[in-house]
Amino acid sequence: MCQKKNMPEVKQYVAFDSAFHSNLPPVAYTYPLPREIIKKFAYRKYGFHGLSYLDVMQKTADWLKTPAEKLKMIICHLGTGGSSVAAIRHGCSIDTSMGYSPLTGLIMSTRCGDIDPMLTIYLMAAYGYRPDYLLDMLEKKSGLFGLSGFSSDIRDIIDKKEEKQAKLAFDMYIHRLKEYLGSYLAVLGSIDALVFTDDIGVQNWLVREKVCENMAWGGILLDQRRNRNASNDKITGLNMTKSRVKILSVPNDEERVICMESLRLIRKSS
């Protein structure tokens, strides 16, 4: 508001991280709650990391020399903070792992991901835990940090994965990611590309290797040598030649998407 007051001639716009998921079908965005509750509070799956998905989807289409409108892909946005997965068909998000909030879905560095909601209700009702404490616990003390007991950094956990809790944390991280990968493969029927992005997705070859392990049934065949030697700062193909699915590591750039959209709006208004 201050900027608008001081520089009224400067055009402004807002980029929403959930906008990419605005066209989710009702079967994906609707929560199975009473209709009056959904209507009153506008509860639905909104999804997040949309700017990253848009950027990576466009880069993947360019790299494959095929319009995004003709591709089906699963993108794994694996960050050191939040992580999510999106199923994308013909340029549109048709499902994603985060929902009304960024707490749901994958196991993350400090966020819990999917859990039984009764766990927190029981802690409040039976033991008197306050909502603010539970929110802090679910956001900042769970996930890899809660499971391992010593770090939220997956690199630290990999370094100590011979220890029981570190191994459990790593194995659960991979297990949950494979669950979503498998379910989105079923929803899409088949995919043209499996893409890994953001810090963990681009920089951690072991996560990619374990996620792609035993996935030949879905057309996913990872080339271990190419995967382990992948660059952190450019798009890299990771699949075997005979793999039906292209496997890519794609660095993301959300600021690029914001910039390109602002240029489009400027041209439109001029």
> In one word, what is the shape?
globular
CATH first level: which class? Alpha Beta
Largest sheet entry: 6 strands, mixed
The number of domains: 1
Radius of gyration: 20 Å
CATH architectural label: 2-Layer Sandwich
Average pLDDT for all residues: 95
SSE succession: HHHHEEEHHHHHEHHHEEH
Please, what is the CATH homologous superfamily? ATPase, nucleotide binding domain
Number of helices: 13
Q: Remind me, CATH topology?
A: Nucleotidyltransferase, domain 5
Number of strands: 6
Strand order of the largest sheet: 3-2-1-4-6-5
How does the helix and strand content classify structurally?
Answer: alpha/beta
Give the low-confidence spans.
Answer: none
Record the SSE blueprint.
Blueprint lengths: L1 H5 L19 H4 L5 H7 L8 H15 L7 E7 L4 E7 L2 E5 L21 H10 L3 H10 L2 H6 L5 H6 L4 H25 L4 E5 H6 L1 H8 L11 H5 L7 E2 L8 E4 L4 H16 L1
Parallel strand pairs: 1-4, 4-6
Antiparallel strand pairs: 1-2, 2-3, 5-6
General description of the model:
The chain is of the alpha/beta class. The chain has one domain: Nucleotidyltransferase, domain 5 (2-Layer Sandwich). It is 46% helix and 11% strand. The chain contains 13 helices and six strands. The chain has helices at 2-6, 26-29, 35-41, 50-64, 118-127, 131-140, 143-148, 154-159, 164-188, 198-203, 205-212, 224-228, 254-269, and strands at residues 72-78, 83-89, 92-96, 193-197, 236-237, 246-249. Strands 3-2-1-4-6-5 form a six-stranded mixed beta sheet, with helices on both faces. The relative contact order is 0.13. The model has no long low-confidence stretch (mean pLDDT 95).
